[in-house]
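Supplementary Data S3. Sequence and structure tokens for construct A.
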Amino acid sequence: MSSGVVAVTVVWATKAVQDLAALVLPAGATAGEAVARSGLVERYRIDLSTTSLGIRGRRVRADTMLADGDRVDICRPLVADPKEARLARAGAAGPALPKPRPGR
């Protein structure tokens, strides 16, 4: 892209829907501006007070300036603590088998 604009993508995903909006914004645009201009908030009635934003798997603030090619993820809140979910799955699988020792 030229130096005066950035091309970005805004993504919203749930079990039921995966949608994205490709945008060309002026250089210096922020993650919050991209989300607002994407139309996804209105289309899916997203409550931004319960979500966070991310770029490349890292949480960012709405005032984070975007670079050309960034993908802004609108992240839903976790429904379960990942650590507790892993422990529950491990418990449901039963006891672990002993690990083989090298040379035996």
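Construct B, processed identically:
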Amino acid sequence: MVAAAKPVVEGEERLLAALAAQAYPLARVIDRKVVVDHAARSMTVDWRIDTGPYARFDRRPSKGSNRSIAISCRRACPGKPANRSTRQGR
């Protein structure tokens, strides 16, 4: 087995994609440490990851549906009414 950079980079991409699928779309690698032991013919990779904020997104609302927009506004700004007239494009 030859120590190569390609599997490390591909593994990093898979790791970030898995974090994005688990609601961490802004995850990023802060540091990567690769240690190759030629005698044992092994390689160890340690990543330091900043997951960023948890960010779950709801499904896209169906065409013409304003109800989900109003619900999202109420969740984002509790205590404030959802005012559709202030949305851009209206």
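Residues 1-54 form one domain. The chain has a mean pLDDT of 78.
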